[in-house]
Design brief:
This protein is of the alpha/beta class. It has 13 helices and 18 strands. Strands 1, 4, 5, 6, 7, 12, 13, 14, 15 and 16 form a ten-stranded mixed sheet that branches.
């Protein structure tokens, strides 16, 4: 499938006039109360809440490229408040009730992000929507039903989700071969780059110094070294998420998993009438390979998925450019779910990385002995999780014991990923097995393929 633009960070920047001009770099050595490494959602939310809590704080944010260069400016725009990490893994080191509290706190991020965008005048194309996870074969339908019951068993409020029949799902979005779906309420759609750029502007207006074009070379207690000078600070926050493997000493902390997207040309109104999607729902499916889509503000369709899942050594892409095979695969998913779109052109394709801990469970924490904190490993749920991370890190930095600092993801540590080539082999084996499992299920296997369970076992997914 031909595409007009491949890379150039993401479509989201093309949508707002192109890649922004960088702010000036760090002008030399300086001192601060808090130094934040990374100007994505995590770093900016942390700076925002810290400054709101204590306006006297001297906060410096260091960014290698520009605010929103990474996943914050490339994601699928799902402000979901979701919780797809293993509840059982968190419960082993806390309690069932604590995990439910964390689940509720994550769900609350949707209201909180909406509150802040309204209060601060951030135009992020935020609209409240539902999320639809569709099943298009018998095995997927069984998983959708299991997912629905699992959510109820973990005390998700019944009014927040609904099991849909094939007819009910098709009334919302005319998906080919749909057999049913699970619907989640109280979520939102955003334009990612507008959100992160708006947040950066607000943070800067509060008096936070954001230095772009500044590469961090190392950091330790009280000190962050860059190619532009040294920042001395009593508190340091690592907010580098999918790019963490590029920092010395963090090569195996979080795996840099690739995800890619395509976006169509604007969809004609007549075609929208065929497709439906009047509710602008977030759209995913129950395939093992998984996809994520949205209907954008100006009437395009974005479709995302894993593509080539991992580059050797946790390497990252070049300005968002992705492989032709990935573009073709995503176009195949789009036209399989929505064959009405076969005639549409693809205007833009791009990719980015997201952080994956060894147990696939996100963490936030702060080491009081060193004054170094972190948050990330969101495994694709960063739009909402980063907001809770920013509020949690604020409490930790200010040494406040709150309901947030007692949640089970705080100061959770897991073992590192294996060295190469085992990391590469494991991830690629996992996704190859997922593809094979999907193929068997589409061919008529009525239950989840055992190959998917083997894939999960290989990497601890």
């Amino acid at each position: 499938m031909d595409v007009k633009t491949n890379g150039n960070i993401s479509f989201w920047y093309a949508d707002i006039g192109g890649i922004p001009q960088k702010r000036p770099p760090l002008p030399g050595d300086r001192e601060a109360d808090v130094c934040i490494i990374g100007a994505g959602y995590t770093g900016l939310w942390t700076a925002y809440y810290l400054k709101k809590a204590d306006p006297t704080l001297n906060i410096v944010v260091l960014e290698r490229e520009f605010a929103g260069f990474g996943g914050s400016g490339r994601n699928g725009g799902w402000l979901s408040g979701g919780f797809s990490w293993s509840r059982e893994k968190y419960a082993k080191t806390s309690s069932r009730g604590a995990v439910v509290d964390m689940q509720n706190a994550m769900a609350g991020t949707v209201d909180e992000v909406e509150r802040v965008t309204r209060a601060e005048g951030i135009d992020a194309d935020l609209i409240r929507v539902d999320k639809l996870v569709a099943a298009t074969n018998e095995a997927q339908l069984a998983r959708v039903r299991e997912e629905y019951q699992f959510a109820l068993d973990w005390q998700m409020p019944p009014e927040r989700l609904q099991l849909l029949s094939a007819q009910e799902a098709a009334k919302r979005i005319n998906i080919a071969d749909v057999q049913g779906a699970v619907l989640y309420r109280n979520m939102a759609r955003v334009q990612p780059a507008k959100l992160v750029r708006g947040l950066a502007k607000v943070v800067e207006g509060l008096g936070v110094a954001i230095y772009e074009g500044t590469s961090v070379t190392s950091f330790e207690k009280g000190r962050v070294d860059t190619d532009r000078g040294t920042v001395r600070a009593r508190s340091i926050i690592r907010a580098t998420e999918g790019f963490s493997a590029g920092l010395p000493g963090y090569e195996r902390t979080w795996l840099a998993l690739n995800s890619a997207q395509i976006v169509t040309e604007p969809v004609p109104e007549a075609l929208w009438r065929e497709i439906g999607w009047a509710g602008h729902e977030l759209l995913g499916d129950a395939a093992h390979a998984y996809c994520y889509a949205q209907r954008t503000r100006e009437g395009r369709i974005t479709m995302g998925g894993r593509g080539v899942p991992y580059r050797y050594g946790s390497a990252t892409d070049v300005n968002g450019q992705t492989q032709q095979a990935t573009i073709d695969a995503l176009h195949g998913i789009l036209t399989r779910l929505l064959p009405q779109t076969k005639s549409l052109k693809i205007d833009h394709a791009w990719c980015g990385v997201l952080g994956v801990p060894r147990d696939w469970c996100t963490t936030a924490g702060f080491d009081r002995s060193t004054g170094i904190g972190w948050a990330g490993g969101y495994v694709g749920l960063g739009v909402s999780s980063s907001n809770l991370a920013g509020r949690t890190l604020t409490d930790l930095v200010l040494n406040r014991e709150t309901a947030l600092t007692g949640l089970p993801w705080v100061n959770r540590t897991v073992r590192k990923w294996e060295p190469e080539p085992f990391r590469w082999l494991g991830v690629h084996s996992m996704y190859q097995l997922y593809r094979m499992a999907d193929e068997r299920e589409f061919a008529g296997l009525p239950k989840t393929s055992k190959l998917a369970a083997l894939a999960d076992a290989i990497t601890g997914h």
